[in-house]
Amino acid sequence: MKRLRHYIEYAALQAFAHAVRLLPLGVARTLALAMADFVFYCVPVRKKVVLFNLKNSFPEMSGAELNSVARRTYGQFAQSMIELIFFPKLTKEKLKEIVKIQGIDVIERAKKNGKGGVLVGAHFGNWELMGAAVAQYCDLTMVVGQQTNILVDNLLNSFRISKGVKIVPLKLALRGVMKTLKENGFIAIVSDQDAHEDGIFVNFMGRPASTPKGPAMFALKTGCPIVMGTIVRDGEGGFTVFFDEIKRPSSPEEEKAIMEYTQNYTNVLEGYVRKYPDHWFWMHRRWKTSATRH
Questions:
Q1: What range does the domain containing 42 cover?
Q2: Whether residue 129 is found in the same domain as residue 263
Q3: For every residue of 261-278, which 3-state class applies, written as one string?
Q4: How many Cβ atoms sit within 10 Å of the Cβ of residue 223?
Q5: Which residues contact 260 (CB under 8 A, 6 or more apart)?
Q6: Total domain count for the chain?
Q7: 58-67 burial by CB neighbour count: b if 16+ within 10 A, else e?
Q8: CA distances from 69 to 104, 269, 277 (A)
Q9: What radius of gyration, in Å, describes the C-alpha atoms of the chain?
Q10: Do 106 and 66 fall within a single domain?
Q11: Residue 156 and residue 38 share a domain
Q12: 140 bridge partner residues
């Protein structure tokens, strides 16, 4: 039954993707916003989680303001997924046309150092599109978790690969990451979800949040820089990617250095989340793991 369900899910996604790609991208985005509103108002998936997270992060906002940000968050996510489906139709020329990059000199400096770099991203804006855009400027390998449905997982990875992004499964991350950095490549890690008991607690949006140690550990071990990448939607079908090189830690002690490095890039992310609150993926239970247990 499980295999049958996976085949049905895969077939449904393929059929939907083919149908959507028959539309102009602008029309497909409008459809995505309509679908997002339907889910937000009629099938409120994770709506309580979103509003709870927002209320705790922006206590100064009114109920109406929180509801507005929450609604736009659903719209952002829906558009991003539609845009991912459009990857097979998106040429490299079109990609460079719609995605502008600020701070590319940060990437160029890392290339010259010969140690590659750790590109830390977040579930912010269209992070998939950011990966595709960055891959046009450097050798980029993305660490990705595996979907339960392998057929769907392979399909999503094929979209990424079609834009020049290399893939390393999360389970095999260590070997793939070290190989990429040794070859002066860049490793992309989305590092803004609850890391459970394996994470390190840093402050995010005013609360301690369990955060993956990986980016800081890789950077400290190899001497490569950490670069925070964020992508902002301009409202007219275009995007801007921002690169921020993260300040290296001052502590000589490994555990303290990992915490300091992780806090430094988390601070940069928080700045973007506060400026563009509807761009972040509030549906995730980011603060699920409690620091009081540690």
A1: 22-85
A2: yes
A3: HHHHHHHHHHHHHHHCHH
A4: 12
A5: 249, 250, 251
A6: 2
A7: beeeeeeebb
A8: 30, 18, 7
A9: 19
A10: no
A11: no
A12: 186
Count of other CB atoms within 10 angstroms of residue 94: 12
What pLDDT, on the 0 to 100 scale, is given for residue 248?
94
Residue with structure tokens 């099938």? 43
155: tokens are 């399909």
**Per-10-residue mean pLDDT, the chain, length 294:** 87 94 95 96 92 97 97 97 94 91 91 93 96 92 88 92 89 82 94 93 97 95 95 91 94 94 98 98 94 59
Write out the two tokens for 65. Answer: 């303001």
List of residues 6+ apart from 14 with CB closer than 8 A: 155
Tell how strand 200-204 and strand 117-121 pair up.
Answer: unpaired
DSSP letters, the chain, are -HHHHHHHHHHHHHHHHHHHTTS-HHHHHHHHHHHHHHHHHHS-TTHHHHHHHHHHH-TTS-HHHHHHHHHHHHHHHHHHHHHHHTGGG--HHHHHHHEEEE-HHHHHHHHHHTS-EEEEE-SBSSHHHHHHHHTTTS-EEEEEPPPSSHHHHHHHHHHHHTTT-EEEEGGGHHHHHHHHHHTT-EEEEE--S--GGGSEEEEETTEEEEE-SHHHHHHHHH-PPEEEEEEEE-SSS-EEEEEEEPPPP--SSHHHHHHHHHHHHHHHHHHHHHHSGGGB-TTS-TT-S-GGG-
pTM: 0.93
Interior angle at CA 84, CA 83 and CA 88, nearest 5 = 100
Q: Which of 241, 95, 87 is nearest to 156 (CA)?
A: 87
- Locate 28 and state its tokens: 């497909």
Cα–Cα distance between 195 and 212 in angstroms, integer? 5
Q: Which amino acid is at 25?
A: L
Is 4 among the domain residues? no
Identify any residues that bridge with 141 across adjacent strands, giving them in sequence order: 166, 187
